[in-house]
Each structure stands twice: as structure tokens, then as C-alpha cells.
Amino acid sequence: MIKNLMQLTRLAFRNIQRNRRRTLLSGSTIAIAAFVVCVMFAFEYGMIKDMEMNIRNHVTGDIRVRSLLFSKHERVQPLQYFVNGTQDMIQKIESFDFVEKALPSISSGVMIYRNEETSNSRVIGLDFSRTNFFNGKNNWMLDGSLPEENSQAVLITEGFAQKTGLTTGDKFTFIGKTAIGGTNGMTAKISGIIHIGDSDFNGSTFFIDWQVLSSLLRMNNNALEILVLTKEGITGSQTNELIRSIQNLDEENIEAIPWYKVSLLVQMFQFVDIMFLFFALFFFLLACSVIFNTTMMSVLERKKEIGTLLALGLEAKTVSYLFLLESALISAVSSLAGIIAGAAAIFIMHTYGIDLGALGGNSMSGMNFSSWIYPNLNFGRYVLVFCTGVFTACAACIIPARLTLTVQPAEALRTEN
Amino acid sequence: MKKFITLALAFFFTCLLSAQNISVSSILEKYESNMKHSTSMIKAQISTTDSFGTTKQTFEIYSRENGDTLIVIADGPDKGQKILRLENSLFLYYPSAEEVIRLTGSALKDSIAGTDFSYEDLSGDNSIANNYTTVLQGTEIVQERECYVIELTAKKKTLAYQKQTLYIDTENFTAVKTIVFSASGKALREIISSNVQNVSGKYIAYTTTVTDLLKKNSKTGMTITDVSLNESIPSSYFTREGLTW
């Protein structure tokens, strides 16, 4: 049987080369479809990965710890509901297995005061020596350096610098509401300017040492949230166990939630991933319509050849398999070619990135997307695209291939090619 | 005869009405006069209670006749902060800030150091006659004191409190109770004063409690620990530059 299959394959391969134009036409549609689908998936994958990284580095960590009361009244940003005993809590969390680090975080709206005018802004308090906030290809220092620990220096974003006209070394005064209901203000010196890829943070935001901010906002050296970063390779059950352990530290007052349950966008993109699969299928079906046509034409034009093969003793279903095999070979080679071309394009885009901001992508705010995307695709998806290309092409050729079963040898031999 | 009686009654009621109008003016005149001094220096302990606990701060308040006022937070979490009212401007000084902040717009509605007083309470023209139409509603016993009840209705929509009800002690002409309302008639705050003492011929309420009627469990208590009236205060206290010293 294998010998027959190999003979059939050799025959199919020879037949493919006989009409190169038709082969090229069929193959190119599959190749283009495979290329487009690969690039499409790479964009989707790259954006989702970017969003995940931004959410985990900038918003929640892998597990977010905060006061229950803060979550309940989050809408009004109640600073008085901080995580009591933040430093102690961080030490305890970091003693657990699978915890890489636990980072304090404070985020609050403030007013910038300049020339007797005020403008709204946001300040984020971080532990600069340990934070992952500025990790990643999408973030880079434009000027200056990070503020020193416990100093009244701030790091401003590119957007903040553009909006205010301030630069490294300049000073500005900001005022915020405190945890005890009053206000407090401070004049800070700009230590540096940073470009943050996450469009949610590259606007009117600046960063300061969390302990300085906590003192300014009368939070008794506590933070509003603790962002827990877990070690690589942690499983789902281990994460749940860790969450339970953190919760048990102060069950009545704090909540610990994994990042994927904090952000609604994550759930939305699980749905979007399924949508993209359907889009991919749609592209291939479009390509397959071409294969269907060309194979149908091939069957009708090669009736005499089919009749000859049947007259020579080849079974009808073997002739049918021959046509299927021809389609499978064309689609396999074409899919592979499309995937290789797609992989090359993805490699280039991944290396240099795509500036969505320049393409009008600045409307992405509120979704933790970066203006620069680095498309990427894992091996599994390449295999999926390849298999889908081959499968849909073969499926499209079933009907034309089955037409050969209806050919009568005697009648076919009388036909002109 | 009938005509004579009608005229007499009309004359009597006219006099009665006139007497009431004069009475409201003279009540308010005595009330405002009691609050007028060439200078005042007050040291007070302010305790703010809300659902999260109690915060205590010590304020030093310097004022002069034209309304210029300097408030210094001498002790407490916000120690070192200063608030200066000059004419119709409000300035803030924060120890960690290198410049003096001029308060305008919606920032005036912010609370002073977490208390139930707002910066708006310090701003604007405090004269009742200029800002409100007044009606005497009679008398009432409040805190065991007989008080004139006076309804104030704002003449301008720009005023922070569109309506107020003053309960003014009939003897010493201090406000025993004040309720302030929004334009829609919703009660916003209630201020109760007690422990009135005579200081240099003026009556000062040494204890004042402000209750925010819009919030649960929100109360500010002010207890005066020291008062000096009509003493010399350096003019530098009432300058913008003086805030940073």
C-alpha cells in the first residue's frame, strides 16, 4: 500500500508540473492566505502579549493585593483605605514560595500648579529600585535618570513633558488630596523623562518614590496596593494556593486577585482569539474557492487522461485520490511557502516594531496597549496555519475529485482534450 | 368714628411692622459688631471625626478688621501649612512646596486640613447685609438659650450658601446655631456654638461643633484655648511673602 501511495505521489507530483500556470495560481492563493493569516495572528498575539505585559507590569502585577474597602469605593479613590502595615505585608508575601517580589504602589490624581493655573495630572508612587514598570522594549529613558530612593525628585513621561514644556532639572509644584481629607503640596525636581509605550501612562503622568508620596498623602508609610510578581513556570493551582496564603494574612481587610480577573480586557481577548480563528478560516475558504475552480477545470479538461487511467486498470477511487493528492501537495507546499514568508515578515516586524501611533493608533488609551507593537507568533500557531491550509484545500477538492468517479472510460476516451 | 378706628388700626400695624424691620437690622448689626475687632489672635484645637477615626490639629488664627486672615496649622498631621486670605484672594503654603499656591475655582470647595470647614468659608464678602435678604421668624430656645431665628436668602447665585438660618442669642448676640442650605433647600451643615465668654467686651464662643449633614459620622469640633483681641499683629503676617517665613 505504501508502495502504491509513493507511486501515486510521484504521479501527482508529475501532474502538478505539467500545467505550471494552474499550479501557480492555485498555490499562490493558498500561500497568500497563509501569509496573511500568519501576519494577522502575529499582530493579535503581539498585541495581546503586549497588553498582558502592560497590565502585569503597570497595573496589577501577577496578583494584586489591596484593601477590600478600597475596592468597594474605588470610584472615589479613597486614599484612607490603604494596605495597613504595607512593609510588613510585603515581607510576609515575599517569604512565600513562587513569589519573585512584592511591590508597593500608589496611584492618585493631583493638580499641577504653574503660573497660578492648575491642570490635572496623575502621580504614581513606585519603588524605583525594584519595580518592573519600566521593563520592556516599549519603554526607554529619553533624558536624565530614575529618581533616587526617598528623594523629592520625579520622573515624568514624554506626554507630560510635551504638555507642560518642562524638562530634566526643572521644578514644578503639585497638590493632592490626602488620606485624612485635607490637601498637601510639594515642589519636585524632574530627574528624568521617560517614554512609556503603554498609552495609558504616557500622557499626563509622573512617577515618584512611593514612600515620599505616602508621606505627602498622609498614608502613614503605607501603599494603596501591593503588586505581587510570581516566578516563571508557576502553575494555575500553585497560583491559587498562593492567593489563598496571601488572603489568610488578613482575611477581613484585604483581597488578593490574579491579574486576569482584574482586567476585563483579558476576557474580551479570549473571545477575540476565537474570532481571529474564524477570520483565518474565512481567508482559507476564500483561497479554497480558487482551488475548487482550478481542480474542477483540471478534472473536466483531463477526462481523456482519466479515461485512459481507468482503461489501464486503475480504480476510480484511486484516480480520485490522485486528484486529492495533487491538491494536498499544492496546498502543503504553498502553505509552507506562505508560512515561511509570513515568518520572515513577522521576524522583521518583531525586530523593529510597528508604530501604531503613527498609523493613528493613539485612540488605544484605556486598553493598556502600547503605541509600538512587536508582532510575534508561536510554533503551534504556524503548525495550525499549515494544517488549516492543507485541510481546507483538500476539503475544497473533494467534490471535483469525486467527479472522477462518474467518468466512463469508453466515453472519456472519445473526448477531445 | 368707624373711619377713625380703621385709621388708628392701620397706623398701629404700620408701626408694628416697622418695629420688626428695625429689629432684624439691629439684631444683625449687634451680631456683626460682636465679631468686629481691629485684630484677633486665636489659638484653637480642632478635632475632626469621621468613619475612619479622629484627627486632632492645632490652629493659630490671626485676623484684622478688613477681613485679612492668616491660619497657621501649628500642630498635627498638616503642621506647617498656612492659609492666607487677602481681600478676595486665598493663598496656601505647604512646607514641602517652594511656591505659594493661589486658590481659585473648584479648589475653594476643598476641605481645610480635613475638617468640615472649606476654603470657600474663608473667601468672599462676609457682610450679611450685602449678601442676603433677612427675615425674622421669631424666637426659639436653642441650647437652653433664647434665640432670634433669622432666615437669610442669598441675593446672588454665586454665594456658597444660598440659604441660612441663624439662631442668635438674644442676650449676647452670638450665633448659637447656624444651619446652611443649598439652593435646593437641602441642609448642608449645622454649626453649634457654646461656652460663650466675654473677651475685651466681645462675646466669643469657645466651643464650636460643625456637623456635615451630607456625610455619615462627620463632625468637626473647635475648642478655643487662647484669645487676644485688638493687639498688635505684625503686618508681615498678612503678606504673601510672609507665608514662606
Description:
The complex is a heterodimer of chains A (417) and B (245). With 417 residues, chain A is α+β, with helices and mostly antiparallel strands. Chain A is built from 14 helices and twelve strands. In chain A, strand 6 (171-177) and strand 7 form a beta hairpin. The radius of gyration of chain A is 31 Å and the shape is elongated. The model of chain A has no long low-confidence stretch (mean pLDDT 88). By secondary structure, chain B is an alpha+beta fold. Helix content of chain B is 17%, strand content 47%. Chain B contains three helices and 13 strands. Chain B has helices at residues 2-34, 119-122, 128-131, and strands spanning 39-50, 53-64, 69-75, 82-86, 89-93, 101-103, 132-142, 145-154, 163-169, 175-181, 187-199, 202-212, 219-229. In chain B, a hairpin with a 2-residue loop joins strand 7 and strand 8. Residues 10-15 and 17-22 of chain B have low confidence and may be disordered. Chain A binds chain B through residues 80, 111, 113, 116, 118, 152, 171, 173, 175, 177-178, 180-187, 216, 218, and chain B through 48, 50, 52, 55, 77-78, 81, 92, 94, 96-99, 101-102, 104-105, 107, 110-115.
